[in-house]
Fold this protein.
Amino acid sequence: MGTRRRIAAALVAALFGGCATQPDVITLPHVSHFSDSPPGSALPLGWEAWTLSRFKKPTQYQLVMQDGKTVVKASAHASASGLVHRLAVDPRRFPLLHWRWRVTDLIATADNTRKQTEDSPVRVVVSFEGNLDKLALADRVFFVNIRVLTGQQLPYATLMYIWENRAPRDTVIPSLHTSRVRMIVAESGRDKVGTWQDVTRNVYEDFKRAFGEEPGAITAIGIMTDTDNTGGNVHAYYGDIQFRRVAPSRQFFATD
């Protein structure tokens, strides 16, 4: 594997594999809300920071007050890192993923269809378990190489919801590093820059469309603002994230 390919894969491993081996990681059946914590405090239960490596500049994350609610502010300056939350959620029972985000600007040269410019001002990332023995030979070899390189196991599959510059909304962008990562354009273009956006995605249907198979259990969710490939500067905000199921009378959440 080339250096850039190893780094990109190690990033995925750090976000969704590394925490699994730590004994103090808390796995919850729901996503802890940022709004439950006061600004400036430690992260809510279940959330933790991750960094790619000591050679990679991390994005800065902090809890701040916006419009009367505590949210996460991300500040990226030629950097890449994120926050991760371990989970145990059945996407068949709780297929709807809802979140809020706001970007202050786009990354002018970002293009997630090209390795050299694969950055996004906001990402919401979902990992899934599955049978690794079902993977194609090239993917199994890739997974073994990453396990040897990082000591961490990549998830069976990963969906990344991104804000793209040009690709139309709902576009599925395959990762150029591994077939087990798919990016879905949740927002595109400049029309909504600077305003809070409420986004709801059906992760069950998105997974089937992206991978052509039934999803396994959701094992982690993460947020990431990255500008390491383009060298850009960007600020973004993330609100609460929650999984829902729809019932005739009311919304049920992953804690029900």
In short: The CA atoms of residues 82 and 112 lie 18 Å apart. The helical segments are 3-16, 137-150, 203-211. The chain has three helices and 13 strands. The mean pLDDT is 88.
